[in-house]
Each structure stands twice: as C-alpha cells, then as structure tokens.
C-alpha cells in the first residue's frame, strides 16, 4: 500500500459530507478536478473504492463508511494539535462558520459582526442563518446557535438568553377585521404558522402551546417570511419580540394573556472548542447576548 497524504484525506471528508464534488470543492476553495484527483489518489493508495459515483452525487461505499470514522478521528486530532500550538497570530486567521436560526442570525448577530471584524481583519466569518439544525461533528459549522441544549455528542453548550414571543398583527389587519379584546377572540381569526413537516425544532410549535385548537391557515417555513406575511395583513401569528419590535407595521395582541418564551444555546464541538478563532467568536457572541439583556424581553 502506498502512502497517502493529509490533503487526500481532507478531500475524502469534504466529498463525503457534501455529497457532491462541486459543492465540496467550493467549500475547500479548490478546483473540482483537483479534489477529484485527491479522492482517486486516496482510493488508489488504500486499494478500495470509497464512493459510488451516481447521478445524485457521491455515496459512500461500506469501505468508505468505515474509513469515515477513522478520518474524522484524525481530523479531530489535527484540530486539537492546532489548538495547543497557542500562537494567537495563527489562531486568529482563517475562517469561522457560525450556524444560527434565521431570526437570531439576521436580526441580532449580523448587525454586530462589524465589531469583531474591525478588531480582527484577517479573520473570516461565515454566517449561515438558516432554519435548520447544524451538525458540528460533520463540520457543517464551527459554532451553532440552537433552540435546545444538545442531549448527545461531544459538544460544549452554553445558554445564551431566554427570549420572549408574542402574538402580532398589522394595524391594517386590526382595522378591517373583528376586534381582538379577549382570548376567545383569537379563534375567529386566520393564523400564520410553520409548515409542519419543515418545523426543524419542536420548540417552534408555538400554536399548540397557546391552544391545541389552533391551526394555521397560512404555513410558512421561516420566521422572517412569517413576519412579512403578518405585516402584510394575511393573519395573526407568533413572532419573537426582538424581531417584531423593530417593525412599526406590527402590533402586539393580548400581551398579558399570551406570552411565550424560548431559549438560545451556543454550541461548539469538543475538538474545536479551544481553537483560538472559534473561542474568540464564541466569547464574542456570549458577550453581545449578555450586554443586550433588554433586547430579549417582551
């Protein structure tokens, strides 16, 4: 068996996680033909086929599945060694990917990124603000902000903040529909909520917490579009107060009768938790959340 290098193993991991050569090449910042050669070189070196090349993408063979475990272990070791080098000039360059829910990433974190980039201009930040869960073990993100504390995996979790949610409508909607002065009135109005099979966290099931009798007539997959639909007068809906309060076209309904709360957690993988650039961004997010206490209340 010929020797293979670390670049080939990294290429294997990237393709295995992305499932497509072009996507993996873009993530690694190399040409897709280069990535293909590295994967082929690795297969030749160890004498087995690691992927099935199909029209839908690259699928791991049983041998590839077995190598995946060892390759991730080697990757984790490399991360720990890098973290222990302790050279700040090295640690504060490179890229940190932060995966967050779309509301947190768009309305809280994105407006504050300039603070950290001004202090560390050589640090690259990738903010992925999508309505989904992020796998730290698959390196989909270096840092994840979640709505629940992870119950498994080799991760570090830190509670950021509780935040309030309320029921909102647009002034135009309220002027042209039956008044909402009591809790019972909410059952006479159309609701905006989540597409059930695209609800990426059980914490998003707000309506059942208000009443099991409520069912949305308009279902939307993310909170930003839900806010736009409420603002446009499509109905009433539950929105985080930190998002709704900055939109003058939204009015809170029955704040004393209906008030919900959820939490945000900051999660890092055990292997990269102490990497200087990851620690810097994680500490920055925690500090910003702590300093913005009033931002999260109803």
UniProtKB/TrEMBL annotation:
Transmembrane segment boundaries: none
Q: Which PROSITE patterns match?
A: HTH_LYSR
Record InterPro entries: LysR-type_TF_proteobact-type, LysR_HTH_N, LysR_subst-bd, WH-like_DNA-bd_sf, WH_DNA-bd_sf
A Gene Ontology biological process term = DNA-templated transcription
**Which keywords has UniProt assigned to this entry?**
DNA-binding, Transcription, Transcription regulation
Q: Name one Pfam family in it.
A: HTH_1
Quote one Gene Ontology molecular function term.
sequence-specific DNA binding
Q: Which SUPFAM superfamilies match?
A: Periplasmic binding protein-like II (SSF53850), Winged helix' DNA-binding domain (SSF46785)
Q: Which domain of life is it from?
A: Bacteria
Q: Which residues form the signal peptide?
A: none
Question: Which Gene3D superfamilies does UniProt cross-reference here?
Answer: 3.40.190.290, Winged helix-like DNA-binding domain superfamily/Winged helix DNA-binding domain (1.10.10.10)
Domain HTH lysR-type residues, every copy: 4-61
Please name the PANTHER family in this protein's record: HTH-TYPE TRANSCRIPTIONAL REGULATOR, TRANSCRIPTIONAL REGULATORY PROTEIN
* Family, per entry: Belongs to the LysR transcriptional regulatory family.
The protein's name in its UniProt record: Transcriptional regulator, LysR family
User: Which source organism does the UniProt entry give?
Assistant: Caballeronia sordidicola
Q: What is the lineage of its organism?
A: Bacteria, Pseudomonadati, Pseudomonadota, Betaproteobacteria, Burkholderiales
């Amino acid at each position: 068996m010929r020797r293979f290098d670390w670049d080939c193993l990294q290429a294997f991991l990237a393709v295995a996680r992305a499932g497509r050569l072009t996507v993996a090449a873009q993530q690694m910042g190399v040409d897709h033909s280069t990535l293909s050669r590295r994967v082929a070189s690795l297969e030749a070196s160890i004498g087995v086929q690691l992927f099935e090349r199909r029209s839908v993408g690259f699928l791991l063979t049983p041998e590839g599945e077995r190598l995946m475990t060892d390759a991730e272990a080697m990757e984790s070791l490399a991360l720990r060694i890098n973290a222990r080098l302790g050279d700040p000039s090295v640690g504060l360059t490179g890229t940190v990917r932060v995966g967050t829910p779309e509301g947190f990433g768009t309305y809280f974190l994105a407006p504050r990124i300039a603070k950290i980039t001004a202090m560390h201009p050589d640090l690259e930040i990738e903010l992925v603000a999508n309505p989904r869960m992020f796998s730290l073990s698959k390196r989909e993100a270096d840092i994840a902000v979640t709505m629940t504390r992870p119950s498994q995996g080799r991760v570090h979790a830190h509670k950021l903040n509780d935040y309030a949610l309320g029921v909102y409508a647009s002034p135009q909607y309220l002027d042209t529909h039956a008044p909402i002065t009591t809790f019972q009135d909410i059952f006479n109005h159309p609701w905006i909520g989540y597409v059930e099979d695209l609800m990426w966290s059980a914490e998003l099931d707000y309506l059942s917490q208000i009443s099991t009798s409520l069912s949305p007539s308009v279902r939307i997959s993310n909170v930003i579009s839900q806010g736009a639909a409420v603002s446009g007068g499509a109905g009433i809906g539950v929105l985080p107060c930190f998002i709704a309060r900055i939109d003058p076209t939204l009015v809170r309904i029955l704040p004393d009768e209906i008030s919900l709360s959820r939490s945000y957690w900051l999660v890092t993988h055990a292997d990269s938790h102490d990497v200087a650039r990851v620690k810097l961004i994680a500490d920055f997010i925690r500090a910003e959340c702590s300093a913005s206490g009033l931002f999260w209340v109803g």
